[in-house]
Request: fold
Amino acid sequence: MWSVIVGALSALAGVALGQFMQGRREAQGRSYDHRREAHVDFLKSFDHYWDIAARHNPYDEGPAPCDFEADDFDGLYKRLLTVRVFASPSTHRAAEMATKELMAFFGANGKGDQGPLSSAFDEYLRLMRKELGVQ
Reply:
């Protein structure tokens, strides 16, 4: 009699443990997907703005990079906020620093030294790749 009860409890415990482990793996997979998506969206937006500033010349139609208003960067800052939610603190700080350098580059009409911007962006990429396990 006791052996039947112990066997049934063991079977239930095994099923419960299996479900717990499966749920945990699924949650980790979703977390990875959210982090990856946040980083990819931020990178696309960042690259878009960097490209605008770097390609500008005085004969272009439209505003110069230094004429952009804070509202023009809403898309970038919304994506930076998403990175803040899903990324590690160090990766978020690197993304913030890269954004700060991008804004300085915009202030110089895309004609300033790209060294600090490139360095900050490379540091963000390094931390992002490490966080996502990308070689």
